[in-house]
Design a protein that fits this description.
alpha+beta; binds glycine; Creatine Amidinohydrolase; 2 domains; binds manganese (II) ion
Length: 506
């Protein structure tokens, strides 16, 4: 598989000096030097470092990322696609990649859902505008060009929905070479693809929100076989840049602190909904945009339903709560699970199972990059076998089961989900990337073993029924022999957890 890994700073500069036809100075500006942005007219459709200095610093386009990094990503994608295709079909040198933004979606008449930008579009532009399109081309010169198709400024629409960045401003703000109103997409794309022979069009109509674009490619004039750029893009997104890792640290810190506070402040009789609201509030108060997914807040037996998101029940004294929650900051997500007794004290069966899962989870983090943890699928096999062995020790798997395969299979009945996924802009990030790929520096993944014993599980001693426990951390592969637990501040050691829970209950 072609891996378009991040290139070194030196090669970033080489790329930049080759492709920057439209040079922007945003990154080098003294802070708040508005006069240097004289080409940007009117209000823009997203925060900037000069309109929102409390959110963005030093000319960042979006938190922590400057225009140069977006340009480098676009260049790397296009040059990677060209090189890969050349190896297969050397006569084809012209490529056009089309990445649509997300579209506005409505809850009911004129009532919008909260807008979330398409991760690929955001990764390549930093642009937060809906209903736009990025088109990147490369030809035999190997110099990529980027074109944004934007919603034009429109006084009436902006009266209702707020400012749009518009066509002209997008040149300077996003550092693209050309920009047009989105209404010209069809004519421009026909021009761009017809003027060059043998252009391959890369466009993933299955994941596009903008279905009208697919119609354009069915039109006879622009009719071409389409290829999906998704694998190339995901192979880039799999490896985070230093700026992205800082964003991952931040989103993980916000969620870790929020969950610690929610655990400390929780009380018997609180509803799952109340606990959801606490973690949501605490994440937002620390600058998260929103929670990264509908959290699982599950008391008692509800925790044995893996995707329980109703969050409507009261949590009674004696029950544990499983909270799987993470947030999004600057477009990057965290994904944490903690499980704790709502009254602050573990019962004996809860303690036994908590200790099994905590020991297992720490084992698995410790084994990453080593034998049994060299990739995520291997980590899953290790999880099943070790969980099985621990459950034999505590009597939940019969002593007569001695064969490793049978032990792992018996364990799978207690934890029927994978132990890890990649993490980044999306919670289940880069899903086309195989989990049997060797773990390498720059990747981020979760480690999330669990145990789920529903109350009707009659093959298990009664005292263990109705208990669901998962412990999930987010881990950055920092080096070929070092990992960094990005969610290390979120308390999970039993003694620390008991002290935390006691602190607000005295
Ligand atoms: N929160 C979803 C997951 O852990 O995969
Ligand atoms: Mn997860
Ligand atoms: Mn999770």
């Amino acid at each position: 598989m072609l891996l378009l890994k991040n290139v070194s700073n030196r090669s970033v500069n080489q790329f930049s000096s080759k492709i920057l036809r439209f040079s922007t100075t945003i990154g080098a500006l003294p802070e708040k030097d508005k006069s240097a942005h004289r080409n940007l007219n009117g209000n823009l459709g997203q925060p900037t470092s000069w309109t929102h200095p409390h959110l963005l610093k030093n000319g960042d386009i979006v938190p922590n990322i400057k225009v140069e990094e977006f340009k480098e990503r676009r260049a790397r994608l296009m040059q990677g696609i060209q090189k890969h295709s050349f190896n297969i079909e050397p006569t084809i040198k012209n490529h056009t990649v089309i990445i649509p933004s997300a579209t506005k979606k409505y809850m009911s008449d004129k009532i919008p859902y909260v807008f979330r930008q398409n991760s690929e579009f955001f990764y390549l532009t930093g642009c937060l505008e809906p209903d736009s399109v990025l088109v990147m081309t490369i030809d035999e010169s190997s110099q990529p060009t980027s074109t944004l198709f934007m919603r034009p400024k429109d006084k009436h629409a902006e009266l209702w929905d707020g400012p749009r960045t518009g066509v002209d401003n997008s040149l300077e703000l996003f550092g693209v070479e050309e920009a047009y109103p989105v209404s010209q997409f069809k004519t421009q794309i026909a021009r761009k693809t017809n003027e060059k022979d043998h252009t391959v069009i890369w466009y993933d109509e299955h994941t596009s929100d903008q279905h009208h674009l697919s119609e354009i490619f069915r039109d006879s004039k622009t009719k071409r076989p389409l290829k999906s750029p998704a694998t190339f893009l995901q192979s880039m997104r799999l490896f985070k840049s230093p700026a992205e890792i800082d964003l991952m640290r931040k989103t993980c810190k916000i969620a870790s602190d929020a969950i610690n506070e929610a655990m400390a402040e929780s009380q018997p009789g609180f509803s799952e909904h109340h606990l959801f609201a606490m973690v949501d509030f605490k994440c937002r108060m620390n600058d998260a945009s929103y929670l990264a997914y509908p959290p699982v807040v599950a008391g008692g037996n509800n925790a044995t339903t893996i995707h329980y998101i109703n969050n409507t029940q009261l949590v009674q004294s004696g029950d544990m709560v499983l909270m799987d929650a993470g947030c999004e900051y600057g477009g990057y997500t965290s994904d944490i699970t903690r499980t704790w007794p709502i009254n602050g004290e573990f019962t004996e069966p809860q303690r036994v199972l908590y200790d099994v899962i905590l020991t297992l989870q720490k084992d698995l983090i410790g084994i990453l990059l080593r034998e049994g943890g060299e990739n995520l699928d291997k980590l899953f096999e290790t999880m099943c076998l070790r969980l099985g062995k621990y459950l034999k020790e505590v009597g939940l798997i019969a002593a007569h089961i001695t064969n490793d395969q049978a032990i792992a299979k018996a364990a799978y009945a207690f934890c029927p989900h994978h132990v890890s996924h990649y993490l980044g802009m999306d919670v289940h990030d880069t899903p086309l990337m195989s989990r049997s790929m060797k773990l390498m520096p720059g990747m981020v993944c979760t480690v999330e073993p669990g145990i789920y014993i529903a109350k009707d599980r009659l093959d298990v001693p009664k005292e263990f029924r109705g208990i669901g426990i998962r412990i999930e951390d987010d881990v950055y592969i920092a080096d070929s022999d070092r990992v960094e637990v990005l969610t290390a501040d979120c308390i999970k050691e039993r003694s620390s957890l008991e002290s935390l829970l006691k602190s607000k209950r005295q």
